[in-house]
Structure formats: C-alpha cells, structure tokens
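stage 2 :: seqdesign
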C-alpha cells in the first residue's frame, strides 16, 4: 500500500468511527427517553391502582344490601299472608 492509500484508509476508518459514535449517541438518547417514559407509565399505573383501591374500599355493599332487601320482602310477604 502506498502512503496515499494508507491515508485514505485512515480517513475512511475515522469517518466510520464517527458514524458509529453518532449512532451510539443517538441510541443512548433514545434509550434514555424510553426509560423516562417507562418510569412515567409506571408512576401513572401506580396512581391508577391507588385510585381504584380507594374506590373499591368506598363502594356500597350492594350484594349485602340486596340480600337484606330480599329477606325483608320475604318476611313482609309471610307476615301479610299469615296476618290477614
């Protein structure tokens, strides 16, 4: 190889190195952005879970209320039929 060819190879290798460095920097930036979004998503999910748990604790006991109402209706029906 001549000196000119060697210089061209060295120059091309430097260009490739620069391209690889830029690609890695871009990839690192994209990964950092994805990690930030994942953290935000995890935080939002935790907040939603806390809200859902609060709603579940504060809800009316509908099955118990329905059972009590049906028992009352049955007792009232029996009372009406035996009392009249």
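stage 2 :: out
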């Amino acid at each position: 190889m001549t000196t000119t060819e060697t210089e061209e190879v060295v120059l091309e290798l430097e260009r490739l190195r620069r391209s690889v460095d830029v690609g890695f920097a871009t990839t690192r930036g994209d990964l950092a952005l994805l990690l930030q979004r994942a953290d935000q998503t995890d935080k939002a999910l935790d907040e939603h879970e806390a809200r859902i748990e609060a709603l579940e604790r504060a809800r009316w006991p509908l099955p118990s209320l329905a059972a009590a109402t049906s028992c009352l209706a049955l007792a009232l029906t029996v009372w009406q039929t035996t009392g009249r």
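stage 3 :: structure notes
- The chain has a mean pLDDT of 92.
- Residues 1-83 form one domain.
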